[in-house]
Specification:
9 helices; homodimer; 12 strands; 4-stranded antiparallel β-sheet
């Protein structure tokens, strides 16, 4: 299965100011596409930190490394500098990106009734990409996304503003990821269980996972161990949709039967 | 300044099922204590993945590495196994942890009107800690937290259930972290700016950061680049509270003056 790594860049995440909803959004999208998100890394707006983390990620040989954040016009937007350092691909003005940025400021000038908005160094910065990279158009903001191949990995950088990240992901990235995933499909289901403690469910889950090696089963305690209510989540990614559904269905039947035999009760069932 | 790494363990985070609120909660607490969160890593419930990520974190020489998730009774709770492998400290039954777990099940038995609840292998598992580790009492759940020293780092494992993670953090971990931080203090302030684009603010922020080398300044676009509303966030961690406040205040005055001179407007101001 294809492996993806997500890297979130931004001090605001490391000081707990911002909740990392971008990583969750992307992880869900990638999983639904049939891809495996192997790791999510959050680093600060520091060239050396970004560069080290990119090198470490590349050494784990992901198919895609997708970064979010740090593409804007300010001094603290350092993602491309970090990637440039890691891949030994120095930043240089990219013609295509330059045109994209120029067009944006023409539009902004018109909107504000100005003759023109000057292309200051801060604005040109958004068009300085690592050598060999291509820009991805940003339908809702200024800074283009960036894509560059390095060894086995494709490194993609998206802005940190959620609407911009999502728009570039959907327009430019999703078609590539769909091609990578092929017919692979993710399928999940969940059961609510009452009347059993998580520690009583543990050997049941072990047995069902053993008998269904491709289904991942995880229990999430929702009550307390003393007054238990457990959610059991089953998921798999298979080479096609029918296989994924069959696998999860088989595991659901087995786990439900065993739970009921042992005196537990299924309070809820959801599959999608 | 003391460096901390957070590691979140759980497939539910990598498939986008769960938003990583634990990491944000902890990052905020650690930052407020005057500590520097250097990296947040999310890995799957896989012994080799956990072990590799722990080794990588240890090699960056953090003062503390704090993990969340994967301490429960089920087969997929593999955090301690991963840590044991990384630190070459095999799992063994810990007497103290064993008593904690035993006491919990006595209480649960009483609550349910049972004579006793048997200590099955799944339940005993929560008392099997890496050699040399100590348990941290869990005031609201079953699985104890775990603490172990390795080289320069203290590795602490907390459960993934937020209420349990927070309770052990506050009771057992915070006193150690306060000692580590000493008088170090984090201070932050934010300004809302209208009437200027982020790319116009960029050179102003650069200048103020240059003149105030210990203050970290970051702009967050809240509107669009064309119809801009920007939040500027200033923060520092200093050796004591007065120094932290002085540093941020000086930067605020400089940035406000410059923004107003260039035609921008401060729409909001918050300091804490």
């Amino acid at each position: 299965m294809a492996n993806i790594e997500i890297m979130s860049v931004g001090n605001e995440l490391l000081i707990g100011k911002t909740l990392n909803t971008n990583a969750q959004w992307m992880a869900k999208r990638l999983t639904t596409l049939g891809l495996n998100v192997r790791r999510i890394t959050t680093v600060s707006d520091d060239v050396d930190e970004i560069s080290a983390a990119v090198n470490e990620a590349i050494s784990r040989k992901p198919d895609f490394l997708i970064t979010t954040g740090g593409l804007g016009p300010t001094f603290d937007d350092k993602t491309l500098e970090g990637i440039a350092k890691a891949l030994n691909a120095p930043l240089e003005l990219n013609e295509e990106a330059s045109k994209m940025v120029e067009e944006k400021y023409k539009t902004y000038a018109q909107e504000r009734g100005l003759e023109k908005i000057e292309l200051t160094p801060a604005r040109v910065k958004m068009a300085r990409l690592p050598k060999g990279a291509k820009p991805l158009p940003n339908p809702v903001g200024t800074a283009p996304g960036v894509i560059i191949k390095h060894q086995k990995a494709t490194v993609v950088s998206l802005p940190g503003v959620p609407s911009e990240m999502e728009a570039i992901f959907e327009k430019s990235l999703e078609p590539l990821l769909k091609k990578l995933a092929g017919k692979a499909t993710f399928f999940e289901a969940s059961l609510g269980v009452s009347g059993m403690m998580e520690s009583e469910l543990a050997p049941i889950i072990d047995k069902v996972m053993h008998d269904n090696p491709y289904v991942y089963i995880k229990s999430h305690p929702r009550g307390q161990e003393g007054i238990p209510h457990i959610e059991i989540h089953l998921s798999t990614t298979a080479e096609d949709s029918a296989t994924a559904k069959n696998r999860v269905s088989r595991a659901i039947v087995q786990i439900t039967e065993t739970i009921q035999t042992k005196g537990g009760k299924i309070t809820r069932f959801k599959a999608k």
